[in-house]
Design a protein that fits this description.
By secondary structure, the protein is of the alpha/beta class. It has 9 helices and 7 strands, in the order βαβααβαβαβαβαααβ. It has helices spanning 17-28, 40-49, 51-56, 71-85, 108-136, 158-178, 196-207, 216-222, 234-244, and strands at residues 8-12, 32-37, 61-65, 90-93, 140-145, 183-190, 255-258. Strands 3-2-1-4-5-6-7 form a 7-stranded parallel beta sheet, with helices on both faces. The radius of gyration is 18 Å and the shape is globular. It binds nicotinamide-adenine-dinucleotide. Nicotinamide-adenine-dinucleotide binds next to helix 1, helix 5 and helix 7.
Amino acid sequence: MGRVSGRSCIVTGAAQGIGRAIGEALLDEGADVCFADIAEHKVAEVAEANRPRAAQNEAQVTYAHVDVTDRSAVQAMIAHTVEIFGKLDVKFNNAGVNRPMNFLDVTEDNWTFIMNVNGLGCLIGMQEAARQFIRQGSSGKIINTASVASRQGFDNVAPYCASKWGVVSLTQSAARDLAKHDITVTGFAPGVVATEMWEQVDRDLMDIGAAQRPGQAMEAFSSDILKGRVATPADITGTTTFLASKDSDYMTGQIVMIDGGMTLV
Ligand code: NAD
């Protein structure tokens, strides 16, 4: 019996990186998982690749094509999951984007793109998951992906930091509002995790002249990590499965830092 056996979960941003690892760790512990992403073919392949893992754990797997900023697509993703798994228990709002720009160069387009996916996407994801929990008359868990950038402003990524501070306040507001429905809302805050997002950030920082060679930006960001190394997605999933399990039932409104001691707050 796994820690999340029989739980129906959706993970957004699950075609790669942290989201894919969250979904796979949930399957390992017996949960039914809908991998959801805007990258339709990739997320379909991820779901397909995970069929043996699901079978091994007596779990089910499916996928959904979703843009988290599109409410009707989010509703369709939830309806699809409920149709296949019979209910929804846990919703991870994990999809996120970054597009570094020097502070003085940040444009309205850059701001809107990042705030829409990371901020509005989180709000819509929480609202629609909560509506489903209320409709089915059950408790539920919402888990948001924050960041060390939710706790400190960093240069060259101002809109990203603002969006991730927004995830913290949205988590707190939703926790207060949804407690009466027995819905908990938590989040976790990774530091530097070796994923495609960081590879892209590394390239972007070179493009804007903030770094001179590949890997330099990641080294600079991670020089203060007490654990002495950057994270892999596997460093994150012990906590995310805990947050999806009954073991965290008395937690709400909180963000768990998983940054190897990068920011002590
Ligand atoms: P990633 O870029 O590897 O994966 C992000 C996924 O989100 C991609 O599959 C992408 O297709 C999907 N996505 C983007 N926009 C979407 C949209 N509108 N709708 C649906 N899906 C969309 O990133 P990652 O490193 O795995 O990051 C996952 C989450 O963790 C993000 O919220 C990110 O901000 C956060 N985070 C990452 C790090 C890190 O160091 N990698 C640190 C802190 C927080």
